[in-house]
Amino acid sequence: MHVVATAGHVDHGKSALVRALTGMEPDRWAEEQRRGMTLDLGFAWTTLPSGEQMAFVDVPGHERFVSNMLAGAGPAPAVMFVVAADEGWMPQSAEHLAAIHALEVSAGLLAVSRSDLADPGPALREARLKIAETSLGRDGALEAIAVSAVTGQGIDELVAALDRLAARLPVPDARDGVRLWLDRVFAIKGSGTVVTGTLQAGTVRTGDEVLLTPAMRAVRIRSVQALGTPASQATGVARVALNLRGVSTREVSRGMALVQPGCWTVTGTVDVRLALSADHARPVADRRLPPRLTVHIGAARAVAQTRMLGHSIARLSLDHPLPLHVGDRVLLRDPGTVADRATGRPVLGATVLDVRPPRLRGTGAAAAAQRELASWPEPPEAADLLRRHRLLRSGTAAAMGLRDLPAPVRGDWLADPAHWQQLRQRLAAAVAAHARSDPLAPGLPVDAARATLGLPDRGLVEALATWQAGAGLDALVELRGGYLVPERVAAAADPERPRSTASTDTRPAGSGQPDTESAATSLPAPAAALAATGLPGPVAAAVRTLLADLAAAPFSAPDSERLRQLGLDTRALAAAERAGLLRRLPGNVVLPADAAKQAEQILAGLPQPFTTSEARQALRSSRRVVIPLLEWLDRERVTRRLPDDRRSLRERPSSGQANGE
Questions:
Q1: Distance between CA 237 and CA 46 in Å, rounded?
Q2: Are 8 and 82 in contact (CB under 8 A)?
Q3: What kind of fold does domain 502-655 have according to CATH?
Q4: CATH class given for the domain over 265-380
Q5: pLDDT in tens, 505-562
Q6: Which CATH number fits domain 2-168: 3.20.20.140, 3.90.180.10, 3.40.50.300, 3.10.20.80?
Q7: What is the pLDDT of residues 397-406, one digit of tens each?
Q8: What is the 3-state secondary structure (H, E, C) of 385-407?
C-alpha cells in the first residue's frame, strides 16, 4: 500500500479529484458536504492499474485549518499538489508548499485542476517555478498533469502518473519500531475505541501491546483493519484502523501516538538544526525566533519554548512530551503572526539532532553546544551522540533511533572511546592519590572510585580496571577483593620467588630436621620487594627488621610485645600482607609470605602421617604457631587431617599428570 496526501489552496478541487480517482466521498461530515469545503481530514483509496493499492489523505485548504492539514500530510510520504487552472497560485498554495518543504517531502506530483474552466498553461508554469526550488521539485522529476474532475479530462493520465509515483516510493523496513500518529478517534458499538493513522514503518499485529503516548499507558490491539478490510497485521506504509482494548475515547485524541515499547524516546526537550525557509529569502539562522512556536510532527502538535544556541541551532522545550528519534523532521510554525497574503504564515523545518540533550550549565555552555551540534551530519550518527553523552545504555541509544552501535564496554553500557581513555587515566590518578594519602589502606573502594569519576554504575569502574589488558594496554590499576590498587603494588604482592626442588634436598628421608639454610634462601629479597610496595618509611623499616628476624627461624612468629616494639599494628601488618611480604594467621601469628611453601618442604621430610607435636619439633616452633599454621595448610589443601588428628601431605601430581599424560 502507498499513502498520498493532498495539498493546495481552498476550493481548488482536491476532494473532487479524490472522488474522481477512487469513487469514494472523502468529506465525512454533513457540514463539509453541505458547504462543499473540506474542514477536516478525509480518507479514500483505490487500486491502481499495476495492482498497487493507494490511499489518499484529503486535507483542508482553508487557512483556518492548517493544523488539520499538517496532521494529515505530516505522516504521508508523498503528496498530490493541486492548483486550479482558473485561479493559479494562491496564499494557501504557498503555505502548503512551505509546509511540504519544511517536512522535506520529496515525492509527489502536480495536478492542475479545473482545466475545463481555463487554460492550464499559465497556472502550470507558475506552479512549476514555485515548486522548483523546494524539496518537492528539487530533483526535477515532478510530473504535472492537467485534469478536470467534472469532464474527466486527464484523469487516466493522473492515474498513470500515480502508478509511476508508487513505483518510485521507498519501501520502509517492516522490522522498524512502530510509531502510529493518531489522526482520528471514534467508538464502534460492541467494539469500543477505534483509532486510525498512517503507519509509516514497522508492523502492527492483532494482540500486540503498544504504548499510548504521551499518557505512557499500555494498551492492546484487539483487531486491525487496512483500507476497511480486517487483517491479522499491517505493515507500513499503510492506512490502518486499530480497535484498542482497555482505553476509552475520552482518553485518546488526535496527535497522540501508539509506539512500540522501548523503540522511541518520549521527550520534552530536543536540540534541532533549523533549515532554510521555503521562500529561500535568507537563512533561518539570521532570523530571531519568537519565544514560543508550535511544533508539528506527524499528526501531533506541541507548543515549544525556543532558545537559540547559535547559528541555526535551537533548543525546544515542549509543553508535553513526544515520541521522537534523532533525525526526525519537525515543522515550526508561529500561528500568532499575521499571514502574508502572498505566502501565508511562515513555517520552518528543523532536524532533530538530540532527543536527550544535556543541561546547559555555566557561561559558554550554549556556544559550546552550538559548535558541537553544527558539525554533525544529518541524520547524526551513533559516534556523534556518544561523543556528546560519553556514556549511554544500548537500549537508550536504540530508543534514540541510533543504529550500528559499538560493542558495549560493560553489560549494556556504550562509551565514547576518547572519554573511556580519559576515565582510565582519571581512575589511575585517583587510585594513586588514595594510595599516597593512606598507604596502609587496602586500596580505593570501587564505590568510592565510582563517585569520584561520576559514573552511574560500579560495573563501569570494574570494567575500567580489567579493560586495559584486553585492549592491549599497560595495566594502571588492579582490582583486588573490591579494592583498586596501583599496578606496581599489585605486582609487588605476587613477586617471582625461587623454588626449592627435591633434587637439591640432601636431607635423609624421615630425618625430621628442617633445612634452615634452604628455608632462609627461599625468602623474597626484602629490599627489592619493599621498594615497590609504597609502604611508609617507618612501616617498611619495621617489616624489613621483622623479615630479618624470621630469616633464620621462619616459624618463630613474633609475639605481641615484639610487634608493638616494631610499631606494627593491625593496619600496618594488613598493608604488608597485601604487599605480599607477610602472612597473617589467627591468633596474631605473623609469618613470612612463603610460609606454606617452606612448611611443605620441611614436613615432607617427616614420616607420613605425622602428629602435631612432630610438626612442631620439625618446624622448630610453638603450639601457638603450629596449630593455626596446620589448620591453614589444611584449608590450602597442602595437608590432609586424618580421623586420629594426625596429618599427611597431599600428593602432588607429577608434571606428566599435570599435562594430561
A1: 15
A2: yes
A3: Arc Repressor Mutant, subunit A (1.10.10)
A4: mainly beta
A5: 433 333 334 443 333 334 444 455 555 556 777 777 888 888 888 888 899 889 888 8
A6: 3.40.50.300
A7: 999 999 999 9
A8: HHHHHCEEEHHHHHHCCCCCCCC
